[in-house]
Each structure stands twice: as C-alpha cells, then as structure tokens.
Amino acid sequence: MKKILVVATIILTYLACISSTYAGVISSEQVIVQQQSIYNKQQVLEMLDNVEVQDKLVALGVSIDDAEMRIASMTDQELNQLNTQMNEMPAAAGIVGVVVTVLVVLVVLDLVGVTDVFSFIRPIN
C-alpha cells in the first residue's frame, strides 16, 4: 500500500510539472518585430555613448540617466521613428560642404593661374 502511494505521488507530481509548461508556436514575424525593437533600442542607447551627444544633453539640462530612463520607457513605435529620423540625417554634411568649397577655390585659383594643383585645368591668361 505504501509503495502504491509513493508511486501515485511521483506520477501526480510529474503530471503537475508537465501540465504547467506550454510551448507555443512563434511566427517569424513576431521574432523579427521583437529583434527590430531590441536593435532600435540598442542603436539609440549607443548614440548616448557619444561624448558630443552627452555634452549637448548636459547643455540642454538633461542628465544622461534621465535620457536612458526615457529611452527605456519608449514604445517600439517611438524608437522606430527616432531611429528612422537619425538615419535620415546627414552624418557629414559639414565635412562634405568644406571639401566641395576647398575644391572650388582650388579650381578657381588654377583658372586664374595662381596655383597649378590640377594639371588638366589650363589658366585663363
């Protein structure tokens, strides 16, 4: 009788453990959305590691900890929108402008005959 009671207890315990687990099917779309959300949050948090961004936040009166807490509380849609806006911003617009300006000045100086940087440009004189 005692053996039957022990075996019954073991079987019931085993069944209780099995019934509490549930394996659901997760679609690829759900996984992609979840991973995109994690990626967006990481991208924005990595932006906070930039010294220039930290200096700008401090100048605006926002502490880094407050910014990190705000990012952590953002919805997936807000993170996606912020990441999209950051990716559309010109990253090196100032540098490109300077390079183009320097090239134009050198071409004009070559045309006038002051310099001879570009061999394919013949002076106007």
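The record above closes out task 2.4. Task 2.5 opens with a second protein, given below.
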Amino acid sequence: MNKAGDGCVAWYHALTMTDVAARAGVSKATLYRRWTAKADVVADAVATLNPMTAPRYPGTSLRDDLLALMVQVGNCEGQPETVTATMEMARSHPDLYRTLSERSSTFVRAELSRLAGQAAAAGHAPLSVVELDVLSETVIALLAHEGGPAGGSIPRERLIRLVDHVLLVVLTGTRAAQ
C-alpha cells in the first residue's frame, strides 16, 4: 500500500463515533439513531460521492441493458479520490469491507432482478428467488475476480463475455448472437 493508503487506514482506525458526532454538531445518541457502526457512517459518506444508481439503460435489447449495468458496476475510472481511499481502507478493516460489499451486492441484485423481470416479460422463464440470489452472487464474484486485488476497472471485452456467456444464458437460455 502506498503512503496515502497507509494514512487512510490510520485515519479510519482512529475515527470514532464521538469525533463524527462532534464534527456534525449532534449528540452521540442522535448519531447512533441513524448509524450503529463506524463502517455504516463511512459507507454512507462514500455513497454521497459515488452513488449506486441505475445506469442509463439503452433499452434496445436485454443484452445491451445487461452490458450497461456491467460497465457501470465494473468501471472504477473517474471515482473521487476519497472513494478509492475508502476501498483501500476496506482491505484491512473487515467491518467496512463487509458493509461496502453488502451495499454493492444489494444494488447489483436489485438491478439484475429488474432485468430478469424484463426477460420474463419477453417470454423467458422467470428466475426463482434462489436463482436470482445465485446469479447476483456469481456476478459479484466474477467482477471482484476480474477487478483483481487493486479493484481496477474491468475491460469492456471481459464484460461483454460475462454478459454473452453467463448472464444471457441464465436469463434467456441462449447466448448472444455472435
């Protein structure tokens, strides 16, 4: 880890809910009504810098919409420095890692659920809750694997392969036309 990353890790370790309450000008009790843990406060702060919002789906095909989602989720370019530093902190703080991972997983599952509904409306077999959960977990694992330990952006060609050979197969039973 670089010196900036080391400073961020030390900062997170030293941060207390008392510090946050004092900086916000509220009591600790008020703070705890909204957040139960430091990881939640930091994750919410990061979400204001890098909100997880649905991409602009082109609406031209299920494949194009899936690709738009994967490009957004797999792209780390242009993130504020604070977001990148927080991801570095998460590597050495399991509570923060768990919180950020859960939020990312929830976002991906919700978007995949919407797209699975689109596939079902087009006549494909609907996914069960278990199938949707497994698909979401698989997508997150593949994105984490492709992003590598540094959490880099995933090349578009790899995302296209994920969409064409995994997501479309699961959602429609067929691969994209080659």
